[in-house]
Amino acid sequence: MQINRYIDHTILKPTTLIADIERLCSEARQYNFAAVCVPPPFIKTAKKLLENTTIKTATVIGFPFGYSAIEAKLAEALLAIVDGADELDIVINLIALKNNDWQYLANEINHILPVVKQNNKVIKLIIESGVLTDEEIIRCCELYAPAEVDFLKTSTGYAEKGASVHAIELMRKHLSPQVQIKASGGIKTYAFAKELIDAGATRIGCSSSVQIVSEQD
């Protein structure tokens, strides 16, 4: 298994420096990661640093809490696309979910998904599985799989609990085969990354990417 090709090499801290992005992209080139995931203001920088590579530039929308208005997420998504993002990791509205307003969530994805797809970009929906019940995770699978999102993603990394093997297994069981799974949040070792992949994850979001790759060697 080439673990490097599963990895979205990530930095999303609010104090990110240009030097951090330069290092991130340099490491991504060196290890040939699948993508880098950067804050929206750094999309153009990352895109330029990754020219002439197959490495994708991902960013986040509605991050990290997901309770931005649909119109705000749509504006963020459009700007990210204009700036050159290949993949958009979008946090769902967890307030709506926890208040059992599934109609809002359906309306949200119905507004955002067409814009992403019309521009041939990849959409990953972050459901923050660590703060959801199994029933809520299953309901997310039932809502978003028919919408044909590209990925369901476990976590932002900012909640009290990140990725888990249980959540990946549950998602894989209740998603259609064409919907992939991205595990993120607290993935710091090769052993854990491999467990998540074995459970069904096809992408791993982490900042400890170089450490993980070095542990495989």
From TrEMBL:
A GO molecular-function annotation: deoxyribose-phosphate aldolase activity
Keyword tags: Cytoplasm, Lyase, Schiff base
Active-site residues per Swiss-Prot or TrEMBL entry: D89, K153, K182
Pathway in which the depicted protein is active: Carbohydrate degradation; 2-deoxy-D-ribose 1-phosphate degradation; D-glyceraldehyde 3-phosphate and acetaldehyde from 2-deoxy-alpha-D-ribose 1-phosphate: step 2/2
Catalysed conversion reaction: 2-deoxy-D-ribose 5-phosphate = D-glyceraldehyde 3-phosphate + acetaldehyde
Family matches, as SMART domains: DeoC
InterPro entries in the cross-refs: Aldolase_TIM, DeoC, DeoC/FbaB/LacD_aldolase, DeoC_typeI
Main location: cytoplasm
Single GO BP term: carbohydrate catabolic process
Matching Gene3D superfamilies: Aldolase class I
Source taxon at top rank: Bacteria
Subcellular compartments: Cytoplasm
EC number(s) reported in the record: 4.1.2.4
One Gene Ontology CC term in the entry: cytoplasm
Family: Belongs to the DeoC/FbaB aldolase family. DeoC type 1 subfamily.
Stated role: Catalyzes a reversible aldol reaction between acetaldehyde and D-glyceraldehyde 3-phosphate to generate 2-deoxy-D-ribose 5-phosphate.
The protein's name in its UniProt record: Deoxyribose-phosphate aldolase
Source organism of this protein record: Parafilimonas terrae
